[in-house]
Predict the 3D structure of the following.
Amino acid sequence: MLSDLRFALRQLAKTPGFTAVALLTLAVGIGSATVVFSALNALLLRSIPHVTVPEERLLFGTQTETRLNQDIGWNYLDFLALRERTTTLAGLWVHSDRTVIIPGSKRPERLLGTEISWDAFGLMGVAPVLGRPFTDQDATAAAAPVALISAGLWQRRYGGAPEVIGTTVIINQQPTLIIGVMPPGWRYPDFTDVWTPLRPDPAKPFARGSFNFSGRALLKPGVTLAAAQAETDVIFGALEREFPATNGSVRARFRPIREEAIEESENFIFLLFAHCGFLSDLIV
C-alpha cells in the first residue's frame, strides 16, 4: 500500500496544475456536501433551540384569500377574534418586523426589531436569561414602552453588564425601558435584536382588511391539527357572516411549523443538491 501511495504522489507531482485543480474541486465538493448536510440537519433533525414545548404542538398560521388561493398574512382584528373564540388552541400570537434605530456615541445603530404579542415567548416556553418577560400590562396603550434585547446586542453594546436591566434607551426616538435579555442565539423570528410588545395605538387603530402580521399558534395537549383547523374554519365562517365586506373570501389555515420552515427553504436546498451533483460530475 505504501508503494502505491508513493507512486500516486509521484504521478501527481508530475502534473501540478491538474493536481491543484483536482484538489480544489474535491475541497469545494466536500464543503458543499457539508453545507447540504448542515441545512438538512437544521431543518429536519435538530430541535428548535430554546423552545421547551413539544414541537408537534407548534403551528404556522396564515390567513388566505380563497378565491386566489393566496396567503395574505394576519389581520389583527381577525387574530383577536380567533384567539378569543378558539377552544382547540392553547395560544396564538402574531408579530411584525420593523427597523429599530438606537443612538450611538458616533453614529446611530440600525437593527432589526419585532413587535410581537406579549405572551408569544411564554407560549413557546422561552424565557429571558436576565430580567423579566413581557406581561399583559406591557401591551396596553397606556403602558410605558419596554423592550427585550438579544444576548448578542447585550454583549456588544452593554458588555454583558447585568445593570442593563432597567436602563432606558432611545428606540426610534422613544425612551424605552430594557426589561430583559433573551437567551444566546435566540433571534426569533429570524434575525431580531430588539423585541417590543405589540399594543394598540389610539392614533392608528387596527382595521379589518389590512393583513400586516405573521402568525404562529400552539395546540392544546391532545388536540390534533385537523381538529384545530376544523374549528378555525367554523370561526372564520362566522366572521364572514359578521363582516362580509372584508372577510367574504378570507379563511385561516395552519400547518406544522417544521413543514413551513422546510417549504421556505426547499429551493435553497435544491440548489445546493444541484451544485453538489455538478461538482461530483466534475470530480468523476
Summary: The two ends are 23 Å apart (CA to CA). The longest helix spans residues 16-45. The chain is about 40% helix and 25% strand.
